[in-house]
Design goal:
Radius of gyration: 43 Å
Number of helices: 15
Shape: elongated
Strand content: 15-25%
Number of strands: 18
Largest sheet: 8 strands, mixed
Helix content: 25-40%
């Protein structure tokens, strides 16, 4: 006959379970659904128990598989692209404009021709005028090409390019920014791979820089230029090389003021005799950094140079390569503070024999290409659409007829009109955003845990508490056995109390003091 335990007996059982946690105890108190029907203490194996075991196993495996897929998705660090359009006041970009002819023939002195003549394919190796130079076209060169008993003086290539390049005050006939006149001093001279160029709305190194802004779209709210190419002062056409041989006009690049220009590679050609309309569209690009992408933040340098960009990285890479190989840099390349040799400007012979060949190799190869320079996390891009109409030549005769006797031919060969403006104030914003973030992953896992197992985050802490308690009890028992040895009572004993027989558990080695029978641990109960 079974005798139910009274309140004191339940208390003893609870104390025993708390002191010696088992999986059955955890199943009896856990909030995990279905585990009580599987781990039922003392129950026989029945169909119901088997069905519950199968269901719980299927749901648990499904949950684990789904969690694995969610974690794998998160660790891919994928991104999606969002496109948005906004309308607001726009900053006018920087405009870099270059004459396709690098230096003027009339600016050459005898010393310039002696030192740089071979570099510009005007002299051969014997210091004689090249065969392709026409006596009619280059009379000035004929006058200064007699080097009999001539002794060269100091020559600086950078100073020569700044002095011999086309001067904006001579090329600019008319300039208008919105409704205001602008002048040649509003253009900042800058050396590029094309020689002397000029930049409108350039960013100064001091804190007084304030970019020009546009409050309306349309042709009347931009920059209008009227230029002359000075084609009569071009270098004579080359026969062996086609670079800058059959070109006349300008190349211009519209770019952000924080990015150095690459006019030779990215510039747009503008021909004389035409009025060219350059319609702009601004796009803001935002990329994600590691681990979702490989962009680099737009870091502002302390030495006053351009902040990091792909163009700046490319120019710096080319500069380091040429300085390390040739021991000097080209005039348009930056002076790098951590590279002392970069202070040295290459002499013309170094340009011919080393720097120019190395630069052509770098431009054609992948040494300083896109794979070497990561993109910046924030990029402002200006897309230009060009259209042209024939220029009204006769309209210039009255105001600028004094520039040449052959008025019609001169303006047709030299006059260039350019209008740069935003068609509208709508700018496009393209952003990379994380496709799957950590909070989303936690929410999905929590929902799956509740759907398949009826559990929550607290269930995890319950199981962890059970594991910690179980480990702690086992460690204590091992420690007690090591310190006190085996218990004096190694077998269970049965005694009779109030007409009932109780089986007493062995005494622990750590507690050998006498105790009343009523306080002993109960392991089994039966009537006598």
């Amino acid at each position: 006959m079974s005798v139910p335990l009274d309140a004191s007996s339940n208390k003893l059982c609870d104390e025993k379970l708390s002191n010696d946690p088992t999986l059955l105890q955890y199943a009896n108190s856990a909030t995990l659904h279905g585990i009580k029907s599987v781990l039922c203490p003392g129950a026989k194996v029945t169909v119901k128990r088997i069905v519950w075991s199968i269901i719980l196993s299927i749901f648990a495996l499904t949950f684990l598989h789904t969690v694995y897929s969610k974690i794998t998705l998160f660790l891919r660090y994928e991104h999606i692209t969002q496109v948005d359009e906004e309308s607001k006041t726009l900053k006018f970009p920087a405009l870099t404009i270059c004459n396709v002819n690098p230096v003027r023939v009339s600016a050459f002195t005898k010393n310039d021709l002696w030192n740089a003549g071979e570099m510009y394919d005007l002299l051969d190796k014997n210091k004689k005028l090249s065969s392709h130079i026409s006596k009619k076209v280059s009379s000035h060169l004929l006058k200064i090409s007699d080097f009999k008993n001539y002794r060269s003086s100091h020559f600086d290539l950078q100073d020569f390019q700044l002095r011999a390049g086309h001067q904006m005050k001579d090329m600019l006939l008319r300039c208008k920014w919105r409704n205001e006149r602008c002048y040649h001093y509003n253009f900042t001279p800058i050396l590029t791979s094309m020689g002397l160029c000029y930049q409108f709305n350039s960013k100064d190194t001091d804190d007084s820089y304030s970019p020009r802004k546009v409050y309306k779209g349309g042709q009347g709210n931009g920059l209008k230029l009227l230029l002359i190419t000075q084609e009569d002062d071009y270098l004579p056409p080359k026969t062996e090389e086609f670079e800058q041989t059959f070109e006349a006009g300008f190349k211009l690049q519209v770019h952000d003021a924080d990015i150095p220009p690459l006019v030779k590679e990215l510039g747009l050609g503008v021909s004389p005799g035409l009025q060219t309309f350059v319609v702009l569209q601004k796009t803001n690009l935002t990329y994600l950094g590691s681990p979702h992408g490989n962009c680099i933040p737009n870091v502002i340098r302390e030495d006053g140079r351009y902040p990091y960009s792909e163009a700046e990285c490319r120019i710096t890479c080319e500069t380091r390569d040429i300085v390390n190989i040739c021991g000097c840099r080209l005039p348009f390349m930056p002076d790098l503070p951590d590279l002392p040799q970069s202070e040295i400007i290459c002499k013309p012979d170094k340009v011919i024999n080393c720097a120019r060949k190395r630069l052509e190799f770098l431009e054609d190869g992948a040494a300083c290409g896109p794979n070497s320079c990561a993109k910046t996390c924030y990029v402002t891009k200006y897309t230009a659409s060009l259209s042209s109409v024939r220029f009204p030549i006769r309209a210039l005769h009255k105001e600028y007829g004094h520039l040449s006797k052959n008025r019609t031919g001169f303006f047709k060969k030299n006059a260039v009109a350019i209008s740069v403006y935003f068609q509208s104030l709508n700018s496009e914003s393209i952003r990379q955003v994380k496709a799957y973030e950590f909070p989303s992953m936690l929410g999905d896992i929590g929902g799956l845990m509740g759907l398949f197992l009826g559990a929550s985050a607290m269930t995890i802490f319950e199981f962890l508490t059970f594991v910690v308690n179980a480990i702690t009890v086992r460690v204590k028992k091992c420690f007690q056995k090591l310190c006190y040895g085996k218990s004096t009572r190694t077998t269970s004993q049965s005694e009779t109390y109030n007409g009932h027989r109780y089986t007493l558990a062995p005494l622990e080695a750590s507690n050998l003091s006498p105790r009343p029978l009523s306080q002993l641990s109960l392991t089994s109960l039966s009537t006598q």
